[in-house]
Specification:
The protein is of the alpha/beta class. 52% of the residues lie in helices and 11% in strands. The protein has a domain of 142 residues. The protein starts with 8 loop residues before the first helix and ends with a helix.
Length: 778
C-alpha cells in the first residue's frame, strides 16, 4: 500500500521537535496534539545523532554497523510514559534512524527537514550546529532511498520517475520494507533468553563465517532490546518520583515490573506478553501485530482462570495499547488479526478474539485495523459479534473468508495449503504468509493513465509531454482488438519496469542491512544463518498496487460499444472530446455514461473487468523469477490513491471528467451500480483471485442493517458462498456524511472506510470525502 499520509502532523512534529536529553535532567512535557513526550535538551539530541553517524561510519560490515546504529539510536527513539498508559513503548523517529520503513525512508533513513529544524534551534551550541551541518551532505547521498535510486538503470529512471504536479506517471516506486508480520507467538513462548539459546544452538552447528557474524549480530540486537526495555523502566521510575495519583502509581509499578521481567525472561502473564510484543514490534519497525488472539490467548485464559484479571481488565489493557499505537499516526497499517484456520489452541484464541474485538469497539477509533478471518467450521460467536459491532456503525472488524482466501493464496503464491492457511492481510489489505514471507508493496501502477497515454500515442494529455510507449495514433487502431493489444503492451512495459525496481530495492536493502530484529522472528533466518532479504526468509515476495481497474475496464467497455460496435463516434473524435473534458459534448458524454458499467451483474461490462484484471494479474505474476522473487503479485487495495491519482489523470471514456477520483479498489464507480446490492456483489466476485489481495467496500445504511438484519446476513452468506473473499462495510447514514461536511465540529468521531484503511471523515481531504459520498448507499 502506498503510504499516503492523511495529515503531516507526525512529520511536522518530528521536524520541529527537540527531544534530546541529559541523562539525569528529564522533562516529560508533551507536544501539541500528538501528546508524545519530548526530551527538551537539543544539544543532547544533537550528540545522539552524531553518535549514530559515528556508529554508521565505524565499520563497513553491515551486521556490525546495524548493531552499532541500533545501540546509538534507542535513547533517541524512546519516548516517556504518558498518564493513563498501561504499557511502555512510545517512540518517535529522529532525523537519522535505522528501520525497515518510516515516513523518512527505509533502512537508513534521513530527514533533512528534521535535521535543519534542530540546526536552526537557538539553544543548539555552535559546536553541535557545525557538526550536524557537516554530516548533512553525507546523509543526502548515503540514505538508502538515494542508494536505491542510484542503482536504477537510466531507462528505468525515465520510466518510473516521471510524475510531476500536474499528471501522475503510469508506474511509480515506493520505498519501504513492509509486509511484515513477525512471529510474536514464538517471541512469547521463548522470550529473550529462549531466543538467545536457539541462536546459540545454531552457532554450534553452522560454522559459516557470515552465519557466525549474523548470529553474533542477532545476540547483540537482543541485548540492545533488553537495554531498551530497562531504559523504559528507568524513565518510568524517574517519573514515578513525582507522581501522586494512586491509580497511576499502581499502573507504573506494574509496567516497571513487567519490563524488568521481560528484559530477560519469557512472559508469565497477559500484561507481560502484550508489553513484550509491543516494544519488540516498535523497536523492530514492524507496524502490524499478527494473530493477536493466538499469541495472547493462552495468557488470557490462564490469567482469567487464576483470577489474576477480569475480562474487563483485559479489554482495558488492549484499549490502552490501541491508544498508544494510534499515537504513531500510521492509519494505513497496524493490523490486528483474529480468527481463522491454523491457530494454535483455538479455544483459548477464540476467547481472546472476542476480547480483542470488544476492545477495538470500546476504543472506537481508526486503529488498529481490526480484522476477522472466519470459516465454516469456526466458532460462530466470532462472526456474530463482528456483525453486531459493524451494525452499530463501526467499520471494524474487516471480514476475510478463509474458505475462499486459503485456496486462492495457495494458487497465487504457489505454496502448500498448510502455509496458505497462515495468510495474513497487512497494511491496506495485501496478503503475506505469517512470519514466512515478506511481501513489500514497492510500486504502484495507474491503469487508467496507461490507457490514456496509449490513446495519445505515448503522450500525457494534461502536460503534452511523452510519458509512455508511442504505439500509434487513435486513427491507427482500426479494431478494438488492436487498441486492446496496444493498451496491454503499455501496461506490460511498465509492469516490467516496476518489477525490476522491486528487485533492485530488495537487493540494495540486503546490501545495506540484515534487518536483525526481523530476521530473529522470521522462519528460516536463524536455521539458515542468513538475513531476511538475503536468503533468510522462506518466501521473498513482492506486490504491485494497481489503481483504476474499474475505470479502465468501463472505459474500454464504452469504447468497444460506442466506437467499434455502435459506431456513434470515431476513436479520433472520442479522444478529441476527452481532451476537451466533455465541454460542449454533453450528448456524447451521456453515450459513454450509459454504456454498460461494472457493478450491475452485466456480463458485457463485467467480462471486460475480468479481462483487465486477468491480464495484469498474470503478467505481473510472470515477473517474479526474473527479479529474484518467489512471487510478484498485484494488490487492488486503493487506500485514497484512487482519489489522489485521479486528480492527476485526464478525462476518460467511461464518462469520468479530468482530475476527478477513480473508483475505489474492486468497487464500481460511485453511483454506476444501479441494479441493487445483489447485482453489485455478483459483479464483485467475478474478477479472478490470482493476486495478493483486493478490497471490496460496501456501504449499507444504518436503517437497512438495523431493520433487516436477517436479510443482510443472508445477503452476505450468499456472497461468501459465491466466492466472496473479503468485505469492508461502512454502516452510515448519508445525511450524517453531508452534515459532517457542513458542520465538522459535530462529527469528530464519525469513522468511515476509505479504501484499505479507515479515517475520521472530517479529517479527510474534501476530494476524498466526495468520493466516499459518491458510493451507492444501500
Amino acid at each position: 500500500m502506498k503510504k499516503i499520509v492523511l495529515t503531516s502532523l507526525c512529520t511536522a512534529l518530528c521536524a520541529a521537535a527537540t527531544f534530546g536529553a541529559k541523562e539525569k535532567e528529564v522533562d516529560f512535557r508533551g507536544r501539541g496534539e500528538n501528546t508524545l513526550p519530548q526530551w527538551i535538551d537539543v544539544n543532547r539530541q544533537a550528540e545522539m545523532l552524531l553518535d549514530f553517524h559515528r556508529a554508521y561510519t565505524s565499520t563497513g560490515d553491515i551486521v556490525l554497523r546495524e548493531v552499532a546504529c541500533l545501540r546509538a539510536q534507542y535513547k533517541n527513539l524512546a519516548c516517556a510514559w504518558q498518564p493513563g498508559d498501561l504499557f511502555a513503548g512510545r517512540i518517535e523517529y529522529p532525523a537519522l534512524a535505522v528501520t525497515p520503513q518510516s515516513q523518512q525512508g527505509y533502512i537508513y533513513c534521513f530527514s533533512e527537514s528534521a535535521m535543519n529544524a534542530i540546526i536552526k534551534n537557538s539553544e543548539l551550541s555552535d559546536k553541535n550546529r557545525k557538526a550536524l551541518s557537516a554530516i548533512i551532505p553525507f546523509w543526502k547521498e548515503e540514505n538508502t532511498v538515494k542508494k536505491t535510486v542510484d542503482a536504477y538503470p537510466e531507462e528505468l529512471k525515465k520510466a518510473i520517475m516521471a510524475n510531476d504536479k500536474s499528471e501522475s506517471g503510469i508506474a511509480s516506486p515506493m520505498y519501504r520494507i513492509s509486509g511484515s508480520q513477525l512471529d510474536y507467538d514464538k517471541l512469547c513462548r521463548l522470550g529473550v533468553d529462549g531466543l538467545k539459546k536457539e541462536i546459540g544452538r545454531y552457532m554450534k552447528t553452522n560454522r559459516d563465517e557470515k552465519a557466525q557474524t549474523l548470529y553474533k549480530g542477532m545476540l547483540s540486537a537482543l541485548d540492545i532490546f533488553s537495554e531498551t526495555v530497562l531504559y523504559y523502566a528507568s524513565m518510568i521510575e524517574t517519573q514515578k518520583k513525582s507522581e501522586t495519583d494512586p491509580v497511576q502509581l499502581k499502573n507504573m509499578e506494574r509496567i516497571i515490573s513487567s519490563l524488568k521481567s521481560i528484559a530477560v525472561k519469557k512472559p508469565a502473564n497477559l500484561h507481560q506478553a502484550i508489553q513484550l510484543c509491543f516494544i519488540y514490534s516498535r523497536l523492530a519497525g514492524s507496524i502490524n501485530y499478527g494473530r493477536m488472539d493466538e499469541y495472547l490467548g493462552d495468557f488470557y485464559a490462564a490469567d482469567l482462570k487464576s483470577g489474576k484479571i477480569t475480562r474487563d481488565e483485559a479489554v482495558d489493557m488492549l484499549v490502552s495499547l490501541f491508544k498508544i499505537i494510534e499515537s504513531q499516526k500510521d492509519v494505513m497499517n497496524i493490523r490486528a488479526i483474529v480468527g481463522g484456520k491454523g491457530r494454535r489452541n483455538e479455544a483459548n484464541a477464540d476467547q481472546m478474539a472476542l476480547v480483542v474485538m470488544d476492545a477495538a469497539n470500546k476504543y472506537h477509533s481508526i486503529v488498529p485495523q481490526m480484522t476477522l478471518r472466519f470459516c465454516k467450521d469456526q466458532n460462530p460467536a466470532l462472526y456474530t459479534r463482528a456483525l453486531d459491532i459493524i451494525s452499530a456503525g463501526y467499520p471494524y472488524p474487516l471480514l476475510y473468508n478463509d474458505d475462499v482466501n486459503i485456496p486462492a493464496v495457495q494458487a497465487a503464491q504457489n505454496i502448500p495449503e498448510s502455509e496458505a492457511a497462515n495468510y495474513l492481510p497487512f497494511g491496506c489489505g495485501e496478503y503475506m504468509i505469517y512470519h514466512k514471507s515478506i511481501s513489500t508493496p514497492s510500486g504502484m501502477i495507474n491503469l487508467l493513465q496507461a490507457l490514456t497515454v496509449t490513446l495519445h500515442n505515448g503522450v500525457a494529455p494534461l502536460t503534452g509531454k511523452p510519458l509512455g510507449l508511442a504505439l500509434g495514433k487513435a486513427e491507427d487502431f482500426k479494431t478494438f482488438d488492436q487498441l486492446m493489444a496496444a493498451y496491454k503492451k503499455q501496461v506490460e512495459y511498465f509492469v516490467t519496469c516496476i518489477a525490476q525496481q522491486q528487485g533492485i530495492e530488495y537487493r540494495v536493502a540486503a546490501e545495506n542491512a540484515p534487518i536483525l530484529m526481523f530476521s530473529i522472528l522470521y522462519d528460516d533466518c536463524i536455521a539458515r544463518g542468513k538475513p531476511l532479504l538475503d536468503g533468510g526468509a522462506r518466501y521473498l515476495d513482492g506486490t504491485l498496487e494497481s489503481y483504476g481497474n474499474t475505470n479502465t475496464a468501463d472505459a474500454l467497455t464504452a469504447i468497444k460499444k460506442v466506437v467499434y460496435e455502435d459506431k456513434a463516434l470515431s476513436l479520433t473524435e472520442l479522444v478529441d472530446i476527452l481532451d476537451k473534458n466533455f465541454e460542449g459534448y454533453a450528448k456524447e458524454r451521456n453515450l459513454l455514461l450509459n454504456a454498460p458499467k461494472f457493478g450491475n451483474d452485466d456480463d458485457y461490462a463485467d467480462a471486460m473487468r475480468v479481462e483487465v484484471d486477468r491480464h495484469i494479474n498474470e503478467f505481473t505474476r510472470s515477473q517474479a523469477n526474473k527479479n529474484g522473487m518467489h512471487s510478484y503479485l498485484i494488490v487492488i487495495i486503493n487506500n485514497q490513491g484512487n482519489t489522489q491519482l485521479g486528480l492527476r489523470t485526464a478525462a476518460s471514456a467511461d464518462g469520468r471528467p479530468a482530475r476527478t477520483y477513480m473508483a475505489n479498489a474492486n468497487a464500481p464507480t460511485g453511483g454506476a451500480d444501479k441494479n441493487g446490492v445483489t447485482a453489485l456483489l455478483n459483479s464483485m466476485v467475478k474478477p479472478d483471485k490470482n493476486h495478493a489481495g483486493a478490497v471490496q467496500n460496501l456501504a449499507l445504511s444504518k436503517e437497512l442493517f438495523a431493520e433487516n438484519r436477517p436479510q443482510v446476513e443472508a445477503l452476505l452468506n450468499g456472497y461468501w458462498r459465491q466466492g466472496g473473499a473479503q468485505i469492508m462495510m461502512n454502516v452510515v447514514g448519508r445525511d450524517d456524511l453531508l452534515n459532517a461536511m457542513e458542520h465538522p465540529e459535530n462529527y469528530a468521531n464519525l469513522i468511515v472506510r476509505v479504501g484499505g484503511f479507515c479515517a475520521r471523515f472530517v479529517e479527510l481531504p474534501r476530494d476524498v470525502q466526495l468520493e466516499i459520498l459518491s458510493r451507492t448507499l444501500y
